[in-house]
Predict the structure.
Amino acid sequence: MRNKELADKLHELAEIAELANENPFKIRAYLEAARVIENLTTPIEEIASKGKLEEIRGIGKGIAEKINQYLQKGKIDKLEELKKKIPETLIEIEKIPGLGAKRVKALYKDLHIQTVDDLKKAAEECKIRYLEGFGEKTEQKILEGIKAMRDKKVDRVSIGIAMPIAESIVDSLKVHSPIDKILICGSIRRMKDTIGDIDILVTSKEPLKIMDYFSSLDVVKVIIAKGDTKTSIITKENLQVDLRVVEPSSFGAAIQYFTGSKQHNVHMRELAIKRNLKLNEYGMFDLDTNKKVAGGTEEEIYDLLGIQWVPPEMREDTGEIELALKRKIPKIVELEDIKGDVHIHSTYSDGRDSIEELIKQSIKMSYEYLVITDHARALGVAGGLSIEKYLEERKGIDELNKKYKPFKVFLGTELNILTNGEIDFNDDDLKIFDICLAGIHTGMGQKKEQITQRIVNALKNKYIRVIVHPTGRIIGGRDEYKIDVDAVFSEAKSHGTIFEINASFERLDLNEVNARKAKDNFGLRFEIGTDAHSTDSMTNMRYGVGVARRAWLVKEDVINTMNLKDFEKFLKLK
Ligand code: DGT
Ligand code: CA
Ligand code: CA
């Protein structure tokens, strides 16, 4: 889906058009089209290929033409034409707080200011205050603005934001530049829930071409540093990407080093020294002769240290090297092990897609079953269902099960653990479901004792088999609510309650620490569910599996790795 990309392009066009004194009506039309496209749920390229762009409200003939140009050749003629007239660096200046297009134009015309550096110099030399419409205060503000922009710390983002950006960079590098091997390393390869920056490693016979192509990519906002074998950029989404070209004979050592974690690497180097070896990003060397003994592949490095290869998700120096020494690294769960999504919303509540569409996507993903878990009554804002509505849904599901056999859909529910500790329905009503999930959606500001007690109450309900997004955190949004996880896990143990690893990348809840604790200290089991509200988000499953792998979970720890037959048996148990 290229909607965001196109919206950004139209924004860029509007900005540059404004600097070029273009017709304000046109500029407004570009911005409106950008806004509309950003909010579309269908991929713009799909609409374009059917020739239906002009049917979208806010998109006329001229803009449709520009969209087609961009989709077909990666360029908009009008934008290229304007770029020739207006230095691109002016757009950078326009982003400084307090500087609109009008002021940037004046600075350019009167003082020939083209770059942020020009601007800083002029402000420091007190030249700006004398321009019409500026003044001493504005000059001061500009200096502060430059500082704020340059100091701006790039925040960590969810892996669900960083991964697609990294993958699309890798895809275009593969297609357009002379690459032999390429791998995303760093925290992304380790599937950490949040990412600081993106690290990509490449081997190539023509490193300079790679550096040029990489720094000219459309996603690049700022080039931080560009060298012969390493380039760092900031993307338009404010993510830093480091790209390194390494020798093929060092590729294994380099991906090992840049995958990290730092702590894992430190431990590996200690092992190396004990074996009279030296390990760095170039390879493994004999300490006496300084001769290189390994480096081409990661496997040979682990091998020469006398330990098992360690899956990247486990490389945090939390005991994995000790296990690798004993050759006891567990076979951790894989995405291919997942046989069905068990937390999904359909159009019956607040989902975007019908159950039939969810089934089709499931079959595409090679799943054998699906549990539909539409919201229950008390969550009015999310179209929560009454028991009557669920019975209607059950009928629909029965029909679909006939049509799509042997694929099977189960009727679940996502119940609300209310502020007083009760749930939406009484026990009798809960009998209609194949499985009941429950979670907290309101009253998240309560005291620790209250929240913990609410969940403990839910655990005691014999119909509730799964607690969803158990700690309530939203990455980059909201902290966990106050909850005594040990008390909750300990109570759950006696009921055999399943805990969710919510795979939606804003949640990833339980996180790896709590999941590992739930397994190791309490022997609990899990489901990995996407909580998807559309077929698109069902692919978030991989992030949930990433958390499970970081928690060292194996297939048997995760209920939705069961095949359909076993899963049906499991559902009948309670
Ligand atoms: P991030 O970007 O904060 O999400 O986390 P990472 O793990 O991607 O960290 P980053 O990008 O700073 O560095 C990538 C890898 O490079 C890191 O995981 C391990 C390796 N590395 C970086 N600095 C050092 C260091 O000082 N010593 C060692 N042994 N390895 C390092
Ligand atoms: Ca990184
Ligand atoms: Ca980095």
Remarks:
- The chain has a mean pLDDT of 93.
- DSSP finds 24 helices and 17 strands in the chain.
- The pocket of calcium ion (ligand 2) is lined by residues 186-187, 196-197, 199 (CB under 6 Å).
- The first strand starts at residue 157 and ends at 158.
